[in-house]
Amino acid sequence: MMPQSIIIDCGASSHFTPDRNSLTNYQALTALPIRAADGRTFPALGCGDMQIHFPMGNSKKPTLITLKDVYYSPHLAFTLVSCTRMTRVGFKVLLEGSECKVYSPTYKVIGVIPNRRFKELAIYTDRQRGNQPNLDHRVSPPHGSHQS
């Protein structure tokens, strides 16, 4: 399987992926229009849960994260992880200097991601599939939420 490129996005209202095969608990949707930051509209065709690995930096073992209610659209180039969705359920995201740190609701660092483009985005490649660490953090939307 090819490494998956992921963007930690402070502007995204929901999590999105172009990789249908990475979703579990998948539910097909009637094409739900999604508006991108550049004004384009594209359809979300389904929704499900997705596991990704947050790197920890300094050769530490990555943290396995389960994102809930990730929208599927084959029109995307990357998986987008929404800072907004994470912070709504108690996670913390700190963009500082050349990295993005993600904290659990109990303030444990669960991700140290190099910031390679802009202060708003932290881009990394999930090369650690199959190396599942002991931690499993669930990021869930507000109860009953399926809209962006």
Give the helices and strands, then pairings.
Blueprint: E1 4-9, E2 16-17, E3 23-35, E4 41-54, E5 63-72, E6 79-82, H1 83-88, E7 92-96, E8 99-103, E9 109-114, E10 121-126, E11 136-139
Parallel strand pairs: 1-6, 2-5, 5-11
Antiparallel strand pairs: 1-10, 3-4, 4-5, 7-8, 8-9
Number of helices: 1
Secondary structure class reads: mainly beta
Strand content: over 45%
CATH architecture: Beta Barrel
* Straight-line N-to-C gap: 29 Å
As for the number of domains, it is 1
Could you describe the largest sheet, including whether it forms a barrel? 5 strands, mixed
Secondary-structure element order, N to C = EEEEEEHEEEEE
Principal-axis shape = globular
Given as residue ranges, the uncertain stretches (5+ residues, pLDDT < 50) are 117-148
Count of individual beta strands? 11
The Rg value, from CA coordinates, equals 14 Å
Helix content: under 10%
Average pLDDT works out at 77
- Stated plainly, the CATH topology is called Cathepsin D, subunit A, domain 1
